[in-house]
Amino acid sequence: MSIEVGSKLQGKVTGITNFGAFVEIDEGKTGLVHISEVADNYVKDINDHLSVGDEVTVKVLNVQDDGKIGLSIKKAKDRPPRQRSRQRTESFESKMNKFLKDSEDRLASLKKHTESKRGGRGAKRG
Question: Which end of the chain has fewer CB atoms within 10 angstroms, the N or the C?
Answer without folding.
Answer: C
